[in-house]
């Protein structure tokens, strides 16, 4: 807050971090409002929820008149505070404000940081060290002249210019970002337009515990992620509508700042190299591939070892055959990454797709980020054909958000729930999946992605849909879903699990699940072998009757007709008539039917076949 009236001309009282300081400030109301907003809505909010050590070194890059540094120095008198400010007028105000508030723990340096400068070989300050070593104190005064340009509308802030544009800028005192690495601050406040990436890179291996500040141009999130030897780091950097954050509540401390891609592989020797190569194509060191060999019998695992045995970004995990759901869970349990995704070994992605999704995930902090997907087929001549999914037209609403060169839009969970299950082209926050208890059901051998998608859509609120990068969903005769067999009946098993969870948790809205159920029935019926269609009609009408009795929901004629399942409306009426004496209540969903279990369908089908052979 600001205490007015001013106690002197150009001097205001600023209360922040539980203390009050008097600041002489520039005669620029817009600049004062901007600085006060940053102080209270960014820096103060970030530090208020964190346990700040009793002492340490705080470095304020772009200190201005001392808006952040001086309240911090007064609130934490046992901390050393070093302020860097290149603008001459602002630096003069900063010095007067330090004296005005009697702060003896503040050092002011008239300099910015320029990425084009090299630093001398300096000793790194040790954690918890008292006064700075002589060499570092001397380095603070060893400024050079470098080229900068004032940024319109941003007060006295200066942005670095490259050497070949030096004549177009102004000369200001500057230091190398490597000096920050030598200082090894315990807390960094950052306000350095154009220098963010160089400063972040200089501090990657430095144990900086806290970073707060502003980002003016898109900076890859990787620049501020600490290396393992630097330890954990809390940061909150506002970048326009985005905020690059690493908050202690976001994830588990033992997890690493990367994305693990779990590849479920079973007998995919002909596809696995194309799959993994597409995941590694852009060389992102923050992406690791976990190939789970689910008991393959075609030496797929041996091929992965041969191709990627020396690649630190690829890890082969082996297990007994248990189905793709168990393979995905197995890979997840062997991952220590903060973000995770799952893909199938016969698919591939656009180069850079998962890097793009990870970048949006880090800047938005959202639970789920997805790319686009395309059907991947080969024509009769063996040429690749990529066909955009239905989303190419349905998800092109205006109002795209921009993050650097990336554009995305927000999709409500309801839209995702009723769409085709495409869990493979999404990046998930691990803590989200863990806290919401979202796993793949291992007792099924198909449709395990359906329950995963519906639960994710229920809990995520909205997800970010990134344009321009697609997952290539390969279509070939060997796919499970192309067989048209009894595995399609697993969908009833999955939806029953969803409805039971909804009852246990008291979900208030189920319309998206009802729509998803009907969409799935329509798709499955169309794919089924003719010999199973009558049984599916029986199973589907029975399941819809149970849903109706459980929730009192009426499936209308138009909805049922849209499934293109002949006789479904008539059969549902008959089933409901058979259950007319059963009261509507939540216990009905706990009833079981053999028609919803593929194992029983398979057994009945085998019995019919055997009986037919005997008759013949």
Principal-axes shape call:
elongated
C-alpha Rg (nearest Å) = 30 Å
Strand content: 15-25%
Termini Cα gap: 91 Å
Looking at CATH, which topology of the largest domain would you report?
Answer: Rossmann fold
Q: How many beta strands in the DSSP annotation? A: 25
Please render the helix and strand layout as text.
Layout: E1 2-8, E2 11-16, E3 19-24, H1 29-48, E4 56-61, H2 69-75, E5 79-84, H3 88-100, E6 106-109, E7 112-113, H4 134-141, E8 144-150, E9 158-160, E10 170-175, H5 178-183, E11 187-190, H6 196-202, E12 210-214, E13 234-239, E14 242-246, E15 256-265, H7 272-280, E16 287-294, H8 300-308, E17 314-319, H9 324-333, E18 337-344, E19 348-349, H10 353-364, E20 368-378, E21 384-388, H11 391-394, E22 401-403, E23 406-412, H12 413-418, E24 426-429, H13 430-435, H14 448-460, E25 462-474, H15 490-505, H16 511-527, H17 530-551, H18 557-562, H19 568-578, H20 598-615
Parallel strand pairs: 4-5, 4-11, 5-6, 7-10, 11-12, 12-13, 15-16, 15-18, 16-17, 20-25
Antiparallel strand pairs: 1-2, 2-3, 8-9, 8-10, 13-14, 18-24, 19-25, 20-21, 20-24, 22-23, 23-25
General description of the model:
Helix content is 36%, strand content 24%. It is α/β, with parallel strands linked by helices and 616 residues long. It has three domains: 2-246, Rossmann fold (3-Layer(aba) Sandwich); 259-481, Alpha-Beta Complex (Spore Coat Polysaccharide Biosynthesis Protein SpsA, Chain A), CATH 3.90.550; 491-615, no CATH class. Strands 15, 16, 17, 18, 19, 20, 21, 22, 23, 24 and 25 form an eleven-stranded mixed beta sheet that branches. It has a seven-stranded mixed beta sheet with strand order 6-5-4-11-12-13-14. Strand 22 (401-403) and strand 23 form a beta hairpin. The radius of gyration is 30 Å and the shape is elongated. The model is unreliable at 1-9 (pLDDT under 50).
């Amino acid at each position: 807050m600001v205490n007015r009236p001013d106690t002197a001309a150009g001097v205001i009282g600023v209360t922040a971090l539980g203390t009050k300081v008097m600041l002489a400030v520039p005669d620029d109301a817009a600049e004062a409002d901007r600085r006060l907003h940053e102080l209270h809505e960014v820096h103060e909010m970030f530090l208020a929820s964190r346990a700040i050590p009793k002492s340490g070194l705080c470095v304020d890059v772009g200190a201005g008149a001392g808006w952040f540094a001086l309240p911090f120095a007064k609130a934490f008198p046992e901390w050393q505070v070093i302020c860097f400010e290149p603008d001459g007028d602002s630096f003069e105000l900063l010095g007067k404000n330090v004296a005005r508030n009697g702060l003896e723990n503040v050092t002011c340096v008239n300099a910015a940081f320029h990425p084009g400068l090299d630093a001398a070989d300096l000793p790194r300050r040790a954690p918890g060290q008292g006064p700075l070593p002589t060499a570092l104190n001397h380095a603070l005064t060893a400024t050079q002249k470098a080229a900068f340009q004032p940024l319109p509308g941003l007060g006295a802030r200066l942005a670095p210019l490259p050497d070949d544009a030096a004549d177009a800028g102004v000369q200001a005192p500057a230091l190398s970002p490597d000096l920050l690495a030598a200082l090894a601050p315990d807390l960094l406040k950052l306000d350095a337009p154009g220098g963010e990436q160089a400063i972040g890179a200089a501090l990657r291996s430095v144990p900086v515990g806290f970073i707060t500040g502003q980002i003016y141009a898109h900076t890859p999130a990787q620049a501020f992620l600490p290396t393992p030897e630097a330890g954990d780091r809390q940061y909150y950097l506002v970048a326009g509508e985005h905020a690059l954050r690493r908050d202690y509540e976001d994830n588990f401390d033992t997890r690493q700042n990367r994305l693990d891609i779990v590849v479920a592989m079973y007998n995919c020797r002909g596809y696995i190299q194309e799959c993994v190569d597409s995941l590694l194509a852009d060389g992102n060191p923050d992406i690791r591939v976990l190939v789970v060999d689910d008991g393959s019998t075609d030496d797929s695992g041996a091929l992965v070892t041969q191709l990627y045995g020396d690649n630190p970004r690829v890890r082969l995990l082996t297990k007994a055959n248990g189905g793709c759901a168990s393979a995905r869970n197995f890979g997840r349990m062997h991952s220590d990454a903060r973000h995770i995704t799952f893909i199938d070994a016969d698919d591939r992605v656009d180069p850079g797709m998962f890097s793009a999704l990870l970048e949006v995930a880090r800047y938005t902090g959202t639970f789920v980020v997805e790319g686009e997907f395309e059907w991947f087929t080969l024509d009769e001549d063996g040429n690749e054909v990529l066909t955009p999914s239905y989303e190419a037209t349905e998800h092109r609403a205006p109002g795209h958000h921009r993050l650097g060169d990336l554009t995305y839009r927000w999709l409500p969970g309801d839209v995702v729930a009723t769409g085709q299950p495409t869990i493979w082209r999404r990046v998930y926050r691990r803590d989200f999946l863990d806290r919401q208890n979202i796993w793949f059901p291992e007792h099924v051998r198909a449709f395990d992605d359906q329950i995963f998608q519906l639960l994710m859509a229920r809990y995520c609120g909205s997800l970010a849909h990134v344009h321009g990068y697609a997952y290539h969903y390969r279509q070939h005769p060997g796919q499970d879903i192309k067989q048209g067999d009894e595995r399609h009946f697993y969908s009833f098993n999955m939806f029953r699990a969803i409805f039971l969870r909804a009852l246990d948790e008291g979900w208030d809205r189920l319309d998206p699940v009802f729509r998803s159920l009907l969409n799935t029935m329509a798709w499955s019926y169309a794919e089924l072998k003719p010999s199973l269609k009558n049984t599916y009609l029986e199973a589907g009408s029975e399941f819809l009757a149970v849903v109706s009795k459980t929730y009192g929901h009426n499936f209308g004629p138009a909805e049922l007709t849209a499934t293109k399942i002949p006789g479904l409306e008539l059969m549902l009426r008959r089933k409901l008539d058979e259950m007319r004496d059963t009261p509507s209540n939540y216990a009905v969903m706990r009833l079981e039917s053999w028609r919803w279990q593929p194992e029983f369908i398979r057994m009945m089908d085998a019995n019919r076949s055997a009986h037919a052979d005997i008759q013949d």
